[in-house]
Structures
1.
Amino acid sequence: MLLDFEKYIVPGMTHWGHPGWFAYFPSNSSPPSVLGELLSAGLGAQCMSWETSPAATELEQVVMEWYRKLLGLPESFTGVIQDTASSATLVAFLTARARAGDHASRFVSYASSEAHSSVAKAARLAAIPSERQRVIAVDEHFAMRADDLAAAMQRDVEAGLVPGIVVATMGTTSSTACDPLRVIGEIAARHRAWFHVDAAYGGSAAIVPEIRPLLDGVEFADSMVTNPHKWLMTNFDCSAYFVRDVDALLHAFSVTPEYLRTRHDRDSAAVNFRDWGIPLGRRFRALKLWFVLRTYGADALRGMIRKHIALGSDLAALVSAAAEFELMAPAPLALVCLRHVPAALRGNEGKLAEHNAALIANVNAHGVAHLTHTRLGGKYAIRVAIGSFRTEREHVLRVWELLQREARALTRS
Ligand SMILES: *Cc1c(COP(=O)(O)O)cnc(C)c1O
């Protein structure tokens, strides 16, 4: 069977752990994480309530406390592991809507035009009609314009609507732009709207002291999500959701039929995580995160993030200095957005998009690097996301060399 696995499955997979992985965002795995996953599978753990998994429930509490402290989040936040950031953001929406009570029919959501698609999906699943989902404009660096947010909320209040939830992003998917959380948090607080911070990718970097300022203002948040399964060596899935008002969460999610009652339901010290999210059954995800944090420790994890960010800054500098290449956004978090602009195509956005799409295809065809794209301000952009834990300088230099070589070849043809 393992021979068949090698023969049929491995060649048919997209290898996210390859050092030439620059697509999307990283989704790292690591030996301690794999060991934790293996042991959790062996235990056959089902972590819906304290009684069904006492040590798993308590370890999840311990590990989320460690992680909260590593991220420099206030003590008022309590953590729970969700499967994905998409689920966590949906949980935030559903909690905010439940909290709105009788006002739910006038509930308005706010997020920037650069927010992740999971935000629009959560709004739809929370039954917020599209005419009550506000898309706030971004500035020249793709961060939310807080003044536009304030104006939109004011208009809605005057129209008799209720500002229900504001989602800000720390590290947008297209360019790792960071919304001004403090200002946005103050505006949300003024309107008593739920303030959710989507730091799915970028949040991991906040364990590095010099990056932590990008999370400044998260103190105002009602909830925040960040994915150890992206940048923090913990294999998919493991998404950390931090929430301030646990009672609001439980009020929205807790349902206890007779067959789930245990002797510990009224014991306030026993947490039943089934009430903290959508599914009843839960995997033992805390184990792998515990193994990762203990094996590497804070310093090594910080070192890895610093290395990736430095590789990103160096590539951004190379791109800025290269004739006919354009750096399309600041690169604070190891994602470099660029495009090739040959003189003949300058100003022709349609042709530039075709040209750069061909460039990605030709680079990817070498099989040593994988790139994807986005659009920034309507312009086609190549994303080079550096964050696979085996990626070294040589791999970044190789993809840069390939980009230049294939760009020349395309321009000649
Ligand atoms: C990746 C990403 C998500 C979605 O993460 P999942 O865990 O796959 O749901 C949400 N928001 C941002 C900013 C992301 O980068």
Note: Residues 164 and 193 are 5 Å apart (CA to CA).
2.
Amino acid sequence: MDLDSIYQNIEPEDVKDTGGPQIQSQSQNEGQTQKQRGSTCFMWMTVCLGMICVLLLVSIIVQHISITSERDLFSSTAEEFNQTINSLQHKNTELTLKKLKLENELRKLYKQGKDRFFISSESKNWSESRQYCRDRGGDLVIIKNEVKQRFITSFFKQRVWIGLTDIQQEGNMKWVDNSILSQGFWEESEPNVSGGEDCIEINPTSPVLNNWNDESCSSMRKWVCENVTSVPASS
Ligand SMILES: *[C@@H]1O[C@H](CO)[C@@H](O)[C@H](O)[C@H]1NC(C)=O
Ligand SMILES: *[C@@H]1O[C@H](CO)[C@@H](O)[C@H](O)[C@H]1NC(C)=O
Ligand SMILES: *[C@@H]1O[C@H](CO)[C@@H](O)[C@H](O)[C@H]1NC(C)=O
Ligand SMILES: *[C@@H]1O[C@H](CO)[C@@H](O)[C@H](O)[C@H]1NC(C)=O
Ligand SMILES: [Ca+2]
Ligand SMILES: [Ca+2]
């Protein structure tokens, strides 16, 4: 078949009047729709991209804030920790020094021991005990610090008299050298009987820094003398 016969077979009017323009307008419509679709799509893509940008920005800001606050929290915690460590170290140093000082003083007391202190093997009431010491150039022991309290207590398993009494004036505790009591190593809820118990004993079964008791002066106890004159007095 040649080209002429093909064209002849198609009626030109039919093509022109019916199919032609319709097809043309359809494809025009389709083009417009596609254009519209394209711009809508482009709009959505822009909106999406915009939203993604906003989200990213927000997440970056949030992360920055949380990192900053975490860092602040961390550094303030570290500082507190540092302060705690420093104060503990400081306390530790103080305690170590105090311990060394106590040990040194205690060693000194033990060294002076026999020259300075007398420990009775018999028992007497308080005033007789005191008299015994005075007859030998000393007096009942005076305890004005922790070291001496520990030292004296360490020698006993039984109760002993010390040189403290409120026999002159009720409630006014005085040492045998007439000085007033400033630091006491009392047992819990002692001294307890105002009038009837005026002489002070150490009860070695109680904790070493809480073992003093006021007791009736006529009770029989062992005792401790101290020669304040034979050694430079350090109370
Ligand atoms: C901790 O404290 C010490 C002494 O005060 C100081 O030298 C050090 O820089 C502090 N360290 C921190 C992490 O704050
Ligand atoms: C106290 O000193 C006197 C006189 O120097 C001495 O006779 C006595 O033995 C001493 N007592 C003690 C416990 O050292
Ligand atoms: C007072 O202390 C003595 C020991 O000195 C004790 O035997 C007595 O029960 C105490 N009395 C009171 C009322 O707490
Ligand atoms: C202490 O004992 C002596 C001698 O036994 C006695 O004369 C004195 O009255 C007693 N003192 C007290 C307070 O018991
Ligand atoms: Ca009393
Ligand atoms: Ca008592």
Note: Residues 116 and 232 are 10 Å apart (CA to CA).
